[in-house]
């Protein structure tokens, strides 16, 4: 079976919708002491990977990053611009396409347990990239980065991943006739 490399108008619309959903959910944020806010972006990225699959999910997140990089205030706290990608939270942002891709792969694989593995891989990649950027941009230790970027977020990360998975997998079933992978 040949995989179509072109995106249909419907694909483009779904990609744009998920980029917009990510922009909206980025504004649901709780400021944290070390400058890394707790947002709903990862919920949106997980949902994006589940609904759009690996390739289109990654494209949607690239579009989101390009819009934000161009200066449109789509990142947390209505911020935008290149400085967001090279600052302390930039690693989290730039990991979104890979995170969506990995989660999408998990949905596309029909083997039992693959989704959970790829969900964990995508989330882990998000945290690793976020910690690395934080260490470099803040001239910080790995321990300080873990306490600022990972430890306070683990309980909500699990909750967001579970809720996005439940909601996303149910929505995916209902949208299956319209989502062409």
Automatic annotation (TrEMBL):
One MF term in the entry's GO annotations: biotin transmembrane transporter activity
The record's subcellular location field reads:
Cell membrane
Bilayer topology annotation? Multi-pass membrane protein
The record ties this protein, via Gene3D superfamilies, to: 1.10.1760.20
Q: What's the family?
A: Belongs to the BioY family.
Extract the PANTHER family matched here.
Answer: BIOTIN TRANSPORTER BIOY
The name this protein carries in UniProt is Biotin transporter
Native organism is Mordavella massiliensis
The organism's lineage? Answer: Bacteria, Bacillati, Bacillota, Clostridia, Eubacteriales
